[in-house]
């Protein structure tokens, strides 16, 4: 049997180190904006590419079904990367850089917010949608890694993972999801997932 323990310890140690360095005040700000948006019965558009697309889809599931199952008002997450036919049609007919912005046009309303996920912070299709949303006056929560890229600058609230590893970045983006879901379970639903 091969011994991978050193590599396992190295990964776990780095992830714990980065986890402890996260800006908890920014998470608190994001929680408040998400709650305000839900209370106002506005939409939360979320999207990303690759692993970030999976994270976006997971967020929608956790909030629209998970938390909302127990609340009178419901979260209205809309994951823009979940409809494959729509993505392929836009990518084929217009261009992949427009797959998210095109979907926001004509839908985005005052009070809606955008949750944009990009490990590098520089995914062109994500930035195009964010720039469009900002031009409409909508607020942006950005989830990034590495140096944060342009998305860090464009976000009203940046949930930044300061590490040069896409794997740890994506791990901790899911921590943001489950942490915030857990907080809302406790505050909105009186369910404590930490017991």
TrEMBL record:
PROSITE patterns named in the record: SIS
Biological process (GO), any one: carbohydrate derivative metabolic process
Entry GO MF terms: carbohydrate derivative binding
InterPro entries: GmhA/DiaA (IPR035461), SIS_dom (IPR001347), SIS_dom_sf (IPR046348), SIS_GmhA/DiaA_subfam (IPR050099)
Pfam families registered for this protein in UniProt: SIS_2
CDD domains membership: SIS_GmhA
SIS domain: residues covered: 34-194
Protein name: SIS domain-containing protein
